[in-house]
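Quick one, tokens below. Sequence please?
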């Protein structure tokens, strides 16, 4: 006798709703960064923010963050290439959470709560797959194999670690006295 109280249809509906909702939130956030939609800064504003936070090169970092959210979010919503999409979103959110860590846990204080939850949710799809109502299922899971899930999940902490390390190095370089000196442009005798 089974003690299961949820039907397969209910599980599929719940998983699909969660996946599409998560993907939609990520698309909205990435669109702020990429296009300036929903009150966002677009690439220029996001690049300035990325530079101030220690991400170099800033424009590339802004593009990667925007695509890591919007692109991965769209793929998650569709259930397409779910291991890579989940890992890309989780990595982007993990790096964002690291920026918010000094503010504590709660989002109301600027803490890491919100990006951490989004990252954890994205990781859950990288691990567990998109479910039956997905493009991965429709295509026979060509882009959603068990080995892909394992590789994608293993890559998340490595990618986060690399980005956090690079950011710390940039911030440390910014704090040195040499970084405060404005470089002279080539061919110019005046400071930039």
């Amino acid at each position: 006798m089974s003690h299961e109280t949820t039907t397969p249809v209910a599980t599929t509906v719940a998983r699909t709703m969660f996946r599409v909702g998560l993907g939609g939130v990520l698309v909205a956030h990435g669109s702020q960064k990429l296009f300036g939609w929903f009150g966002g800064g677009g690439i220029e504003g996001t690049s300035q923010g990325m530079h101030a936070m220690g991400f170099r090169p800033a424009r590339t970092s802004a593009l990667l963050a925007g695509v890591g959210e919007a692109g991965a979010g769209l793929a998650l919503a569709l259930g397409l290439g779910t291991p890579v999409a989940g890992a890309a979103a989780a990595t982007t959110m993990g790096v964002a959470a690291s920026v918010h860590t000094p503010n504590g846990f709660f989002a109301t204080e600027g803490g890491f709560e919100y990006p951490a939850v989004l990252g954890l949710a994205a990781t859950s799809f990288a691990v567990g797959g998109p479910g039956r109502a997905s493009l991965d299922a429709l295509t026979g899971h060509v882009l959603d194999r068990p080995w892909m899930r394992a590789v994608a999940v293993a890559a998340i902490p490595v990618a986060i670690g690399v980005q956090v390390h690079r950011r710390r190095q940039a911030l440390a370089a910014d704090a040195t006295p040499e970084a405060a000196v404005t470089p002279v442009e080539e061919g110019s005798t005046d400071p930039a």
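Confidence is low (pLDDT under 50) at residues 183-192. The two ends are 77 Å apart (CA to CA).
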